[in-house]
Design brief:
15 helices; two-stranded antiparallel ribbon; mainly alpha
Length: 376
């Protein structure tokens, strides 16, 4: 059966944690999609998030393989449960539902940790000896092309990964269908793909990890022939903690306290400076030319534009768009604010910025309209 998608917590009255974002328990603008865009465009370290997601998918692939393996064994030998031999089914019986762990292993409960350890132990024991996966007679390339969305294609290309580019969870295929199978070679290919893409020196998307961690993973995969999820546990925990420490606070400041991306903020800075320059130039000109007050009232327009734009840039929030429930995820692309607590927080901050803008604008307008003129 399909694994149910994680449900967002609509009653959360606080900022979300990184664990909740990666677990897809949040809504825009603090969802996994927005975090991926932030890591790509602003933090410039999306490879760390991609590594973490690929390791999580590797775990899902391993669990899917064991589940299908047990199912196929029970179909072929329906009397297995009545016998004393339960080698292939024991692990799955103690695994429970297939859930992608979205945090460091230290956050897992004792029961979940035991299940993961059992899974890794089974895969280490099964490595090189299991040849009875479902539909094992199929060609391996065909199996990879027709397998679940969590696996890589046989030609080495990475398929689209909707898990982090949309709020929906990864597509779960019905493992009852014989067309959707996971071969033992797929798990090995997944582990090697992670190693050769992110960890080896000079790799395509190399991430910076302690040398000891990289050496341990390399030795486990290339020398010991391991491909179980425990191989990547230390690197995954290190990556999670690095994102939590270095990237996530900036993400919350950007998305929970503001609704503008840096290019938009810079554009407002330019508009604000031009508007203020024009307003001051016209204001002093009206004073020195002793223009009447009904002419000086036109100063309201440049002062309002200038003060509003500079305030928006300073606080990284456009108050009018924030009150309309909009947040920018890329330049001039807007999404609705769906996270309830973020919406309330954004409304309060927008009202504060709007009040500040009105106060400064009124002071400047009154000063330049009512100050006595003196024609030179």
């Amino acid at each position: 059966m399909d694994t149910p998608s994680p449900q967002p917590d609509l009653n959360r009255n606080r900022l979300p944690t990184l664990f909740e974002v990666l677990s897809r328990q949040t809504l825009a603008p603090v969802d996994l999609f927005s975090f991926y865009i932030y890591m790509r465009d602003q933090q410039r370290s999306v490879d760390y998030l991609d590594f973490w997601l690929d390791v999580s998918q590797h775990m899902s692939l391993c669990r899917h393989y064991v589940r299908e393996l047990r199912r196929s064994v029970l179909v072929e030998t329906p009397d297995l449960e009545k016998t004393g031999s339960k080698r292939s089914s024991y692990v799955l019986d103690h695994m429970g539902e297939v859930n992608d762990p979205s945090g460091p292993s230290a956050n897992l409960s004792a029961d979940e940790r035991i299940k993961d350890q059992n899974l890794s132990a089974y895969l280490r024991q099964d490595n090189g000896t299991s040849n009875h996966s479902p539909q094992s007679s199929l060609d391996s390339n065909q199996s990879r092309l027709r397998g679940s969305g969590d696996r890589y294609r046989g030609n080495g290309e990475r398929p689209p990964r909707p898990s982090f580019m949309s709020r929906n969870s990864p597509t779960r295929t019905d493992s009852n269908s014989p067309a959707h199978t996971v071969a033992r070679a797929d798990i090995r290919a997944s582990a090697e793909k992670i190693l050769y893409t992110y960890l080896l020196p000079g790799s395509e998307r190399e991430i910076t990890l302690p040398q000891g961690i990289v050496q341990d993973i390399t030795a486990s995969i290339e020398e010991e022939g391991r491909d179980d999820p425990e191989v990547f546990d230390t690197a995954k925990d290190y990556t999670f903690q690095a994102m939590e420490r270095d990237a996530f606070p900036g993400f919350l400041r950007s998305k929970a306290l503001g609704n503008l991306v840096p290019p938009s903020a810079f554009l407002r800075l330019v508009i604000g400076l031009v508007g203020m320059f024009g307003a001051f130039w016209a204001g002093f000109a009206c004073i020195l030319l002793d223009e009447p007050k009904h002419i000086r009232c036109w100063l309201i327009l440049p002062f309002t534009i200038g003060v509003y734009s500079l305030s928006s840039q300073q606080y990284s929030i456009d108050p009018v768009l924030a009150l309309a429930g909009l947040s920018e995820y890329t330049f001039m692309n807007w999404s609705h604010i769906k996270e309830p607590y973020i919406r309330k927080l954004m409304n309060r901050r927008a009202l504060m910025v709007l009040l500040f803008t009105v106060l400064i604008g009124v002071c400047l307008i009154v000063l330049f309209i009512f100050v006595p003129g003196h024609r030179l």
